[in-house]
Design goal:
With about 325 residues, the protein is an alpha/beta fold. It folds into two domains: about 110 residues, NAD(P)-binding Rossmann-like Domain (Rossmann fold, 3-Layer(aba) Sandwich), CATH 3.40.50.720; about 180 residues, 3-Layer(aba) Sandwich (Rossmann fold). The chain has a six-stranded parallel β-sheet with strand order 7-6-8-9-10-11, sandwiched between helices. Helix 1 links the parallel strand 1 and strand 2. Helix 1 runs parallel beside helix 13.
């Protein structure tokens, strides 16, 4: 039997490219002088897509009328219009679980870096300030006694909460609904969560429903000792409002791994001392990115072998 034809619009990790090559006819339009011409030529042939950050919208889907599955590299899939895929009968998969611990570890690292000003402290050593000026100034904030509001208590949110509990933090949460069997206090609105807490851990996915929900009002409710950590998606935060709240003391500090227009980080944030910035490294270890890549391959292989995906997203559930 001939191998199914799949498209990889942007180059992906070795583990993905090698894994796919074993099982599929892999088309890589990015290698061609005119990628759009290649895509047009392949229009009727393509049955699967492996995507990384690629926008999968109506225009993309219209190009490939015989597409059966879109396998996303990443647990977040706000780059994909999963409702449109569902309406067209196209399966969408993501890469949950295999990255949960890595992202939760990064989130806790970023929280401590931010609270204790560790990146500025490191710069103090490297730029000779320790020798020239003496001890690094004491951090104004402490982790001790903080109330952590988790926005989005999914798999990663729970793993962060578990770690934060071990650090003695009081955990609260907000999400679409109160979850059964979870003892942490639930707040029906984000504003209530921010009012009850001084530390906001953003783990929520991107997309229309969460666009800029962390706004000026929410930041004000966190208060002057407030700390915002974002490990979810940049679009969840109104970055202009955040920069303003950080500059005028409405909140104390922020630690950000994600931004609205990556890799562009607003200058207003970079200009501030009370912001720790990371280049979207939540899941970025070789170990975890390889596991995510393998899951992309496994989803496609399983689909074309058995008509079942390994990790389908809720909008395109597995048929039982
Ligand atoms: C990756 C992520 O950076 O899984 C996600 O949703 O944000 C990250 O693990 C992303 O998949 C692009 O490489």
């Amino acid at each position: 039997m001939s191998k199914p034809d799949i498209i990889v619009p942007r180059v992906m990790r070795d583990v993905v490219m090698r894994g796919l090559a074993e099982h599929f006819n892999v088309h890589k339009p990015y290698e061609a002088a005119d990628p759009f011409a290649v895509m047009a030529e392949l229009s009727q042939t393509i049955r699967g897509a492996a995507v990384l950050g690629q926008k999968v919208d109506a225009a993309f889907l219209d190009q490939f009328p015989n597409l059966e599955i879109v396998a996303n590299f990443g647990v977040g899939y706000d780059n994909i219009d999963a409702h449109d895929c569902s309406a067209r009968g196209i399966m969408v998969t993501n890469t949950p679980d295999v990255l949960t611990d890595e992202v939760a570890d990064t989130a806790i690292g970023l929280l401590i870096m931010t609270v204790r000003e560790l990146s500025a402290a490191e710069r103090w050593v490297r730029d000779g300030s320790w020798k020239a000026k003496g001890a690094f100034p004491l951090s104004k904030a402490t982790l001790s006694g903080r109330k952590l509001g988790v926005l989005g208590l999914g798999r990663i949110g729970k793993a962060i909460a578990k770690r934060a509990e071990a650090f003695g933090l009081e955990i609260h949460y907000h999400g679409r609904s109160k979850q059964k069997g979870i003892a942490f206090p639930y707040h029906a609105t984000l504003l209530d969560l921010a009012t009850a807490c001084d530390t906001l851990m953003i783990v929520a996915p991107g997309g229309e429903d969460t666009h800029h929900i962390v706004n000026a009002e929410v930041l004000k409710a966190l208060g002057p000792s407030g700390i915002v950590i974002n490990i979810g998606r940049g679009t969840v935060v109104d970055e202009a409002a955040l920069a303003e709240a950080l500059a005028d003391g409405t909140i104390h500090a922020a630690g950000l791994d994600v931004f609205e227009h990556e890799p562009n980080v607003p200058q207003a944030l970079l200009d501030l001392e009370n912001v720790v910035v990371l280049p979207h490294v939540g899941s970025a270890s070789v170990h975890t990115r390889d596991a995510m890549g393998q899951l992309v391959v496994d989803n496609l292989v399983s689909w074309f072998r058995s008509g079942r995906a390994v990790t389908s997203v809720p909008e395109t559930p597995q048929k039982s």
